[in-house]
Amino acid sequence: MSKQLYSNTETKQLKDNPNVLKVSERSITYHPLFKKAAIQEYQKGNFPTQIFEEHGFDLEVIGKNQPKRCLKRWRDTFEKYGELGLEGERRGKGSKGRPSSKNLSAEEKLEKAEARIKYLEAENEFLKKLDELERQALKKKRK
Question: Which segments carry the region annotation Disordered (predicted)?
Answer without folding.
Answer: 85-107
